[in-house]
Amino acid sequence: MDFFEAVSRRRSIRSYSNKPVPPEVMERAIDAALLAPNSSNMQTWDIYWIRTPEARTQLALACMNQAAARTAQELVVVTANPSKWPQMRDQNLEHVQGMNRKDMVDYYSKLMPFIYGYQWLAPLKWLIFNIGGLFTPMPREVIWPRDRREVAVKSAALACENFMLAIAAQGFDSCPMEGLDSKRVRDIIGCPRSATVVMAISVGERTERGVWGERFRVARELVVHQI
Predict the structure, then answer these.
(1) Has residue 227 been placed in a domain?
(2) Helices 53-62/182-189 angle, 10° precision
(3) Which of 1, 73, 123, 202 has the smallest CB count inside 10 Å?
C-alpha cells in the first residue's frame, strides 16, 4: 500500500469483526515499530504483545471494557522506561566502538551518563544549562527525572505510530487507547514501576460501526504556521 494511502486509511476503530489477524501481520508491524526514530537511539521502550485469551480479557477490562478493546483480535501495550538507559547506552556504545567514530564513543560514554544519570546533580545541571543558554544554545529538557520520562514517552509514541501505520498498510485496523487503568495494565503485563504505560493498541478488521463518522480535522491554518 502507498504510504499516503496507509496514512489516510488509518482510523481509530471502535469495534472489530471476528476475522483473525495473521501473526505475520503483527510481527511485521512490531518490526516497523522498532524502526521508529527515538531520542539518541536509546530505545527506552517495551512492546507487550498480549497473546493469551485470559490476558486479553483482563486487559480489555482494564481498558474500561470499551468495545475497541473488547472486540479486538489482538492487543498490544507500549511502555516507556527511562531507567533502561544504562543498558541501552551500553548496547549503543558497543555498536559504535567498532565504527572508528570517537565522537560517537564520547557521546555515549561521557555525555549520555551526564545527561541521563547523576540525578542528584539535577539542580546543578539546571544551573549550568540555563547559564550557558544565555550565551549559546543548550539542551534544557533532560535535567529532572520528569524530563527523562517525557523524552522516553515521546519516543515510544513514535513507535506506536509506526506500528499503527504498518497495520493499516497490511489492510487491518487499530485503535490507540489511553482510556485505561494504568495500574491494572502494569500488573497484567508485569512491567516495572519505573515504566510508564504510554497506550494500549487494539488490532483487527473494522466493522461498519467501528468508524465513528467522517474524519474531522480543524482548519489547516489554525495549526500550520510558516515563519
Answers:
(1) no
(2) 170
(3) 123
